[in-house]
Amino acid sequence: MLSIVVLISGGGSNLRALLEAASDAEFPARVVAVGADREADGLDHAEEFGVPSFTVPFTSYDSREEWGDALLEQILLWEPDLVILSGFMRLVPPRVVEALSPHLINTHPAYLPEFPGAHGVRDALAAGATQTGASLIVVDNGVDAGPVISQERVPIEPGDTEASLHERIKPVERRLLIDAVLDIANGHIDLKELSRV
Asked: Sorted alphabetically, which Pfam families does this protein's record hold (predicted)?
């Protein structure tokens, strides 16, 4: 059984989809804890599903490195096989990446390497792109620059706003994430091998 810690900053829609999938006894993974860098609405999903949660507020530390060390300490308490950054809006410091790599993955609302960074949906619209997508990657020390696990295109429709486009990307992100967790748990995706490519 694959044990997972999920880190969020907001509403946690991907987290909820994963918790729902994992509530099936046949699903080969379990979310053992949910963490956040602030008070986040998505922590309510953890409470609803009886999953422990923790918060490591970024603003409580003098530096990103100190915050990262505290975050890593909380993560490691749960001895996860996999850590998922899902709508987690902070870059984790290199020490955290090195400690967890390659078992640290991230969802991103664009077809990487197109439109990396915190505003992938907005940037795609601003660029006048006709399509964008969703990606799932192994986290490295770049900004959304790690090896791609899976990705899928999403068309941009006339009149799309940032909100409407993001709403169409989210279900694709959720499906990519759940499929990848299944494949990692079943040994069909080897994150170590993927990271060597």
From this structure: Formyl_trans_N
